[in-house]
Amino acid sequence: MSDSKKIAIVTGASSGIGAEISRHLKNESGHEIWLVARRLDRMEGLAAELREKGALVKVHVLDLQKAESWQELETHVKASGSHVSWLVNNAGFGYSGRFEDESLESVEGMIALNVLALVSLTRRLLPYMEKGTRIVNVASSIAFLPVAGHAVYAATKAFVLSFSLSLREELRPRGITVSAVCPGPVGTEFWDAAGVGAPPKMVVEDVGNTAFLAVEKSAQGKAVIVTGALAWLARVAGALLPSTWLASLTARRLGK
Predict the structure, then answer these.
(1) In this structure, are residues 153 and 114 in contact, taking their beta carbons and an 8 Å threshold?
(2) Is 153 a residue of the active site?
(3) Which of 19, 29, 58, 213: CA 20 to 30 A from 230?
(4) What residues contact residue 104 under an 8 Å CB cut-off, 6+ apart?
(5) Residue 13 and residue 28: Cα distance in Å, rounded?
């Protein structure tokens, strides 16, 4: 497989961190970038931009909340005869509010996208990876602590962090590196999708810088990539303070 074409797969590539990571990956020589998301128009625009800068790009319109899409992407990789040099599991969404007020469709879709798609794609594509491959799982600073009002989202990202660290050790003998990216609030469409306004600008991370650090630090083999002051604060708080106290503290903003 070492002489085969290399591909870098980015899920959730139509906007935000995924789109910016794709822009940074264009600088990695010798591989084709595969953009994976639901919105064709967004990805076509990004693909055109990357091609103008000399990148090889393919667009795959897939809804990764659906299990058949996981199989379809694996089929495309197998048919290409390529090996996966980068797998960036970035697709995901969140919800802000009480668990009992969240629709069952939203809860199940979030788990399917944030957890099941990430795990299934990683497992399905492992046979197409070799020494030097980078797996980048985009988690969140919320992975470090329980947050009332984001019960399911926080749990999915805690899963991503734990899974990444464990898988990293399992794949170490194969020379495959796994990194978990844990940003704080980033200036993306996430906040609108979550049904909550964006945080104050002074604490919002620049999405381009977050993506740059994700690619740069993953290439260096870093296990956990924390970006932004609030993300570091969350990591320290999660390590030092009781989780029951943190959950109770975050619940106060929900009222009674």
Answers:
(1) yes
(2) yes
(3) 19
(4) none
(5) 17
| SS3 annotation, 99-121 | HHHCCHHHHHHHHHHHHHHHHHH
CA dihedral 218, 81, 31, 58 (to 10 degrees): -100
In angstroms, the CA 245 to CA 65 distance is: 33
DSSP for 58-88 reads: EEEE--TTSHHHHHHHHHHHHHHT-EEEEEE
* Active-site annotation holder among 70, 153, 159, 163: 153
Asked if residue 1 belongs to a domain, the reply is: no
| Residue 42 in tokens | 């967004």
Residue 136 lies in a domain: yes
The contacts of residue 10 (CB under 8 Å, 6+ apart) are 18, 21, 22, 25, 33, 34, 35, 36, 86, 88, 90
**Structural tokens at position 233:** 């604060």
CA distance 71 to 90: 18
pLDDT digits (tens, 9 = 90+) for 11-42: 999 999 999 999 999 876 689 999 999 999 99
- Over the stretch 46-101, which tens digit does the pLDDT of each residue have? 999 999 999 999 999 999 999 999 999 999 999 999 999 999 999 999 988 999 99
- Report yes or no on 22 lying in a domain: yes
Q: Determine the structural domain holding residue 115 and report its residue range.
A: 6-254
Is a pLDDT exceeding 50 seen at residue 211?
yes
Q: Report the domain count for the chain.
A: 1
Give the residues across from 225 on adjacent strands: 181
CATH of the domain at 123: 3.40.50.720
Q: Please, are residues 30 and 5 in contact by the beta-carbon 8 Å criterion?
A: no
